[in-house]
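Entry:
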Amino acid sequence: MPASERIPPGSLTMPDRLGLLTRGELTVRGQVREASNAVLLCSVAYEGQEADCVYKPVAGERPLWDFPDGTLAQREVAAYEVSEATGWCLVPPTVLRDGPYGRGMVQLWIEGDPSASLLALVDGEEPGDGWKAVGLAEVGEDRTALLVHADDVRLRRLAVLDAVINNGDRKGGHLLPTADGRLYAIDHGVTFNVDDKLRTLLWGWAGEPLPQEALEVLAGLEVSLAPGAPLATRLAELLTAAEVAAVRERVSALRASGHHPEPSGRWPAIPWPPV
């Protein structure tokens, strides 16, 4: 059998990427030790093509008090499905399948560009041109700095997606800007709760009017989430009926308000640690 050809993610069409992730043979290459749940670095090979990916087996999920056991992998896939429905394609291709350690989430590996700067700590009380303020952060004894994120259309789209999927853990380390100008976001296990859990570093637009682009995307999501519509049907395979209904309600509420959400005050607004 000829050796598989390792291919860059961008060279595959979406059906090819999903086919490779779904049907390819997974080989574990390593583990992310600092992750709270089991995160295995793998290669996946199928019909002469090979790529790097991340495999998170359900068996390696740590129980959480506010999410049903064994459901984080499904939520990761649901986040991908909603991302695709927006047309923004912010979440890497993600599937649910069996692997060496049982059923789990498999996601295409994305190589981030370390030179891209989306978050920063600055002295003073104003973020400066091209940046949005998040809040003050303690950076040393008796010293604080202003945490800011880039005033970037890609981040703004992600802030809208996070509001839709009710992301409870949007950290800086989950942002993967690439050398070709794309932005991907990862780690969506704590999403789609029926209660308000939005915790994020992307509060810079809180309370501001939603861009027209976002309103149009939300209108499309509302159609796709109608009972019996394709996205609603797919999410019903991954989430509970109450969770799917909550997604529908969040989309409708965002459209009705026309504004980015603001911290509720009932839940810590910024995840810890923030990166």
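The radius of gyration is 19 Å.
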